[in-house]
Specification:
41% of the residues lie in helices and 22% in strands. The chain has 190 residues and is an alpha+beta fold.
C-alpha cells in the first residue's frame, strides 16, 4: 500500500511539474520580449526588447526614408497619442522599429524623431541587426521584402502589446481608424 502511495505521489508531482513547464513555455512563446537580440534606440543606448515591459506598447515597423506608407503609419500613431489624456499616456508608449538597420543608425532615428516631433518620453525608435529585425517581424506576423535602392515593401500594421509584450491586437495604420484603435487600447489601460 505504501509503495502505491509513493508511486501516486511521484506521478502527481511529475504531472504538476509538467503543467508548470507547459505554462512557462506558453508564456515564453506569447511574448515578443522573449526574443533575443541587441537593440539601440535613437539615443544610441543599448537595450533589449524586455526593457519595454511595463507599459502598453504601440509598435510598428518602418524605415525613415520611406515616402509612402511609413509617414501614414507614424501620423496614425501620433493621432492615437493625441487622443489619450495625460493620465492615459502614463500607461502607453510608442515604438518604431527600423526595417533598414544598415541605413537607420541611431543618429538617423534621432533626426527622424526630431523632424516628426516625437516626444522622447513616449517614443522609442529602435534599430538592430537584420536578423533581430526579421525575428521581431516574424513574431508580430509583419511581412516585408527589401527592394531595390534600399526601399522596402511592407505591411502597415500596428501591433498593440500588453505590459508583458503579448499581442493584444493588430490593425492597419489608417488615420480614419484612430478612434477605434484608441478605444481598443484604452480598454487595457489601468
Amino acid at each position: 500500500m505504501k509503495k502505491n502511495q509513493s508511486i501516486i505521489f511521484v506521478l502527481f508531482f511529475c504531472c504538476q511539474l509538467f503543467n508548470i513547464n507547459l505554462l512557462r513555455a506558453e508564456l515564453v512563446s506569447d511574448s515578443v520580449y522573449q526574443l533575443n537580440g541587441s537593440w539601440k534606440n535613437q539615443n544610441n543606448q543599448a537595450l533589449k526588447l524586455s526593457d519595454l515591459e511595463g507599459k502598453i506598447q504601440v509598435v510598428s515597423l518602418i524605415y525613415t526614408h520611406c515616402l509612402h506608407t511609413c509617414p501614414t503609419i507614424v501620423s496614425t500613431m501620433q493621432f492615437i497619442e493625441k487622443s489619450f489624456t495625460k493620465a492615459q499616456l502614463e500607461s502607453v508608449s510608442f515604438v518604431l522599429v527600423s526595417l533598414t538597420p544598415d541605413s537607420d543608425t541611431p543618429k538617423t532615428l534621432k533626426d527622424f524623431a526630431v523632424k516628426r516631433s516625437l516626444n522622447e518620453k513616449r517614443w522609442t525608435l529602435l534599430t538592430s541587426d537584420s536578423n533581430s529585425v526579421r525575428s521581431l517581424a516574424m513574431a508580430l506576423n509583419i511581412k516585408y521584402k527589401k527592394m531595390n535602392d534600399n526601399e522596402v515593401s511592407h505591411s502597415n500594421l500596428l501591433s498593440v502589446l500588453d505590459t508583458k509584450g503579448r499581442i493584444i491586437f493588430q490593425q492597419l495604420a489608417d488615420i480614419s481608424e484612430v478612434k477605434d484603435i484608441s478605444n481598443k487600447i484604452s480598454v487595457h489601460m489601468p
